[in-house]
Amino acid sequence: MNEVELEEVTKIYELPRGSFKALDRVTASLEAGEFVSVMGPSGSGKSTLLNIVGCLDTPTSGRVVVGGEEVGGLGDEQLTRLRRDKIGFVFQQFNLIPTLTALENIEYPMLLKGKKGKGVNRQDGHGRRSRELLRAVGLDEQLGENRPNELSGGEQQRVAVARALANDPDLILADEPTGNLDSKTSQDIMKLLKATNERGKTIIVVTHDPQVASYTGRTFRLVDGKVVE
Ligand SMILES: Nc1ncnc2c1ncn2[C@@H]1O[C@H](COP(=O)(O)OP(=O)(O)O)[C@@H](O)[C@H]1O
Ligand SMILES: [Mg+2]
Q1: Is 13 near ligand 1, meaning CB less than 6 Å away?
Q2: Which atom of ligand 1 lies at the shortest distance from residue 14's CA?
Q3: pLDDT for 129 beyond 50
Q4: Residue owning the nearest CA to atom 17 of ligand 1
Q5: Position 123 pLDDT exceeds 60
Q6: Among 43-57, 90-104, 105-119, 155-169, which stretch is predicted with the lowest mean pLDDT?
Q7: Mean pLDDT lowest for which of 114-118, 183-187, 190-194, 220-224?
């Protein structure tokens, strides 16, 4: 099965000084269980592509299928559900919620999912699952009580990976996840992503770094919004 299919995906940004084509008829597909990287110069459309696959943005034209669902045919509620349940995101700036502890950050997507009607229905299993995820990404239990500013960059990114896994999504999207980390810590995070891939997750990682890309099975290269292979 294909986890992701892109057919002739074009993204045009309308700007005051004219329009800008960030993606130009990108066609690509990824099988379930693949680990791929997207490389290319700054401004080549990598984040735009990842955001479209992650249903955070919509293409100007073309077809996007994620987890067998035709994204263009989904309404807002269905898109929210797809993002929340089927996709995990990891960002360069970690994007943890600063007022929540590491464990609470990991638990947060589970609370969003468990939400029924107006009230938040806190399920008993969430605390246990977030502690398991904390351990799975190689962090000590005591660090679970720390807030993001009490963690190193590498530790924060481990928490972000655990959070991305919270709802057990099939697809993980990581936009320059090692961009703010030193080379040793970058390798630790890539090993963690590789282990995650080996447990069956499909992963797309955007990177500038050939060493990061070397952990993946296949690399897409973007130049001026086009895939060149
Ligand atoms: N929201 C936006 N509005 C207008 N232009 C944008 C927007 N987002 C990205 N762009 C432009 O699209 C191009 C590709 O951006 P991006 O996908 O972020 O590139 P990359 O991640 O490869 O550095 C850049 O030239 C950028 O300025
Ligand atoms: Mg980018």
Answers
A1: yes
A2: 4
A3: yes
A4: 45
A5: no
A6: 105-119
A7: 114-118
Task: Tell me the CA–centroid distance for residue 48 and ligand 2, in Å.
Answer: 7
User: Is residue 98 within 8 Å of residue 149, measured between CB atoms?
Assistant: yes
- Among the bound ligands, name the one nearest to the CA of residue 21: 1
pLDDT at 119 over 50: no
Ligand 1 pocket mutation, candidates 13, 58, 224, criterion most atoms within 8 A of CB: 13
**CB 44 near ligand 1, within 6 Å:** yes
Domains of the chain: 36-57+80-228 (3.40.50.300)
